[in-house]
Amino acid sequence: MKRIVLPILSLLMLSCGDDPLPKPKGYLRLEYPKANYKKATIPLPFTFEKNELADPIKSIKSSANTNGVDVNYPSLNATIYLTYKEVKDDNLNDLLRDAQNLTQKHTIKADEIFNIPFENKATKVYGMLYEVGGDAASQSQFYVTDSIHHFLSGSLYFYAKPNYDSIYPAAEYLKKDIRRIMESVEWKE
To answer: With a threshold of 0.90, does the pTM exceed it?
Structure first.
C-alpha cells in the first residue's frame, strides 16, 4: 500500500502549477449617444428643450392648479417628472418649501446633497438644482420660477432599486439633460 500511496502523493504535489492569481478589476463601460436637443412643444405655459433620446411627450397630467409632463427614457429605464404650478395669491413661498422638502426627504438614504443655484435674467428663470448622491430614490431634483406667475419643479427617477454605483453613469448623463431643461425653459406670456 505504501508503494502505491507514496508515488501518487508525490505525483500530486509535483503536478501543481503556479499559485492562482486574482483577475484584474474590470469596469463596466457604458456609452450613451451624444445628446441632441429639440424644443418640446407642449400645451402648457412654458417650453423647454429635451433630448431626442427621450420618448416624444405624450401625456400631460392635469389637476386643480397643477400640470405635469413626463419625459421618459425607456433605454435608461428612467423618467424626469416635471410639475408646473401657477404662482398666485402669494403661494411662492409654499411652492419653494414643498420643492425643498421633497429633496430633504431623501436625506435618509442620501450620502450628500449639492445645491446648485441657477439664474437666467434674460429669460427670467431662477431656480435650484439638487444633485443627490447615494442610494436615494431620486438622483436629481430641481425647480425654476419667474417668481411672479410660473413655477416648475422636476425629479429624476429610475425604475430600479436605488443602487448608486449601478445607476451612476445614467444619472450623470441625465443630469446634463436636466441642466439643459433648466437652461432652455421659456415662459409663455
So the answer is: no
Backbone angles phi, psi at 34, to 5 degrees: -60, 135
Neighbours of 81 (CB within 10 A): 17
How many CB atoms sit inside 10 A of residue 31's CB? 7
- What CA–CA distance (Å, rounded) separates 7 from 184? 80
Contacts of 143 (CB under 8 A, 6+ apart): 95, 96, 99, 127, 128, 151, 152, 153, 154
Beta bridge partners of 85: 66, 151
What distances in angstroms separate CA 163 from CA 3, 5, 140, 160, 177, one per listed residue?
59, 54, 14, 8, 21
Amino acid at 61: K
Q: 3-state class of 24 per DSSP?
A: coil
Of 82, 62, 78, 56, the residue nearest 70 (C-alpha): 82
Is pLDDT above 90 for 60? no
DSSP characters over 76-97: GTEEEEEEEEE--TT-HHHHHH
